[in-house]
Automatic annotation (TrEMBL):
<dbReference type="GO" id="GO:0000976">
    <property type="term" value="F:transcription cis-regulatory region binding"/>
</dbReference>
<keyword id="KW-0238">DNA-binding</keyword>
<keyword id="KW-0963">Cytoplasm</keyword>
<dbReference type="InterPro" id="IPR000847">
    <property type="entry name" value="LysR_HTH_N"/>
</dbReference>
<dbReference type="InterPro" id="IPR037406">
    <property type="entry name" value="MetR_PBP2"/>
</dbReference>
<keyword id="KW-0678">Repressor</keyword>
<dbReference type="Pfam" id="PF00126">
    <property type="entry name" value="HTH_1"/>
</dbReference>
<protein>
    <recommendedName>
        <fullName>HTH-type transcriptional regulator MetR</fullName>
    </recommendedName>
</protein>
<keyword id="KW-0010">Activator</keyword>
<keyword id="KW-0028">Amino-acid biosynthesis</keyword>
<dbReference type="GO" id="GO:0009086">
    <property type="term" value="P:methionine biosynthetic process"/>
</dbReference>
<feature type="domain" description="HTH lysR-type">
    <location>
        <begin position="2"/>
        <end position="59"/>
    </location>
</feature>
<dbReference type="InterPro" id="IPR036390">
    <property type="entry name" value="WH_DNA-bd_sf"/>
</dbReference>
<dbReference type="Pfam" id="PF03466">
    <property type="entry name" value="LysR_substrate"/>
</dbReference>
<comment type="similarity">
    <text>Belongs to the LysR transcriptional regulatory family.</text>
</comment>
<keyword id="KW-0804">Transcription</keyword>
<dbReference type="InterPro" id="IPR036388">
    <property type="entry name" value="WH-like_DNA-bd_sf"/>
</dbReference>
Amino acid sequence: MIELRHLKTLSALRDAGSLVEAAERVHLTQSALSHQIKDLEERLNCSLFIRKTKPICFTSAGQRLLALADDMLPMIRNAERDIARLAGGAAGRLNICIECHSCFDWLMPTIDHFRQNWPEVELDLSTGFTFQPLPALARGDLDLVITSDPEPRSGLHYVPLFSYESVLALSRQHRLIARKFIHPRDLAQETLITYPVDPNRLDIYTRFLDPENIEPADQRTAELTVMMVQLVASGRGVAALPNWALHEYLERDYVAARPLGEKGLWCTLYAAMREDQKNADFMVDFLNTAREVTFRNLNGIRAAS
């Protein structure tokens, strides 16, 4: 029964103090404005203001609608402003979730750089290690997911960020250090150290061990890359890690690394987003910033097709 135009009309009538000026404010003729008010009064079956009073005196029903207008109209104006800025790519929300433990090294500088250029974009960051982030992205709870395990889902779009080689980290005294590359069967006698992630989401399993029906002798987990490297260096196991995450440790001869398979195990990191946001200016700029930061700071990565 009550429409937005009615609230705007009553608000203009109160502020203007006369039908003539109120009609000008809402871009109607005085006759059209009077007809609109009369139509609303007939719908509500009550008068909204007392005629021929100056200033205009509103009835109790009219005052109630004015209170509603005072609540609703500012909210609508703010929403319209936000939508206009979103349409222009100047503002928005970017809730990011990462499924990559070692990605903090490049994601933090990317976010810092992005925040300077887009201060009006609301940023938030979480990890996807305890829930399924892609369904959350599809629902709208998240806006961007960094993943190496893209799943075909309606309404989602994947952009490759870069490719990297997953290599096996070994202690300097490990027996496999003499190998040029690692075969899956080599890990049947090893303790495999991984991040605390389901094996079905780890490339070392899905793309290297599982196709050969090989399982490691044991598995243990560590939350941080530095903890994994420490365990490897101490001879407590081996770990498959991105080549760029191991670079500083290899430079210091803290551990050794060998390719997984004769051709190496190359993986691609993707940014997942909803289709309706893939062309938003701030989203495009975030992806470009991520590429610039990673290729400037990470060793051993290459462009993803």
